[in-house]
Amino acid sequence: MPRPHSSAGASARARYHALWTAGRPRRLLVRLAVAIAAGGLVAWMSTIWLGLITAVLASLITMAHQFRTHSPAAAWRKGAAGERATARRLRKLELAGYTVLHDLAVPRSNANIDHLVIGPTGVFVIDSKKWHRRTTVRAAAGTLWIGRTPLDKVVRPVLFEARRAGEVLSQAAGRRVQVAAVISVHGSRLSRHRVITNRGATLLRAARLVGWITRRPHLYDAAGVSVLSTAASTLLPPYAQTLDASDRRESLGG
Questions:
Q1: Transmembrane ranges (predicted)?
Q2: What is the pTM of this model?
Q3: For the chain, what are the domain ranges?
């Protein structure tokens, strides 16, 4: 029986909230210390009321800074935002008859698939990346680099996820199912017209994603899409559910 669908970025949001909650006591202490220091200094140099106002402002500024930069929680928050942005673009494919699933667990691993798309033009595992707008793509010493990270390292996870999804779907369909690995990029200085292929993975701007998928050669009829979609919904559970189950096991074991 097909499982309930997961929303895009669900597990990343769960990770973010868990880390943000765990770090709350420390953040409160930092804000209190900043407020006391700033307010006390201004009160000593001026008036009590001005000191109180300064303390409140200092606390608010510190809170805003913590929200933007708290790591690793900030990384999970940014990742979830990228997944939701990609999901919004993929709605066009759903309207065109494609099956789009989000945030799926990869069997026998701790990895997750951000988005799985199944349609007439094939099966696609899509990894969402939300990079800083100044992130560059460059070649140096015979290697492509994304910022300071070699592209080989960037594509490795999505290649693994696509391979495992292909194994699961091939077994269910009784024939080999090729799954394309794609990285959908939000932000960065990657050209709007550039498509990069590395080790079999495709990296492109999120704005090009839907058009790139729909222009691929047709591989499946409606019946084939239905078989693969049912198999994916049944065999690839929502990743957030596996996290919940893991948390329950740890709780019982501890």
A1: 28-61
A2: 0.71
A3: 24-69, 79-249
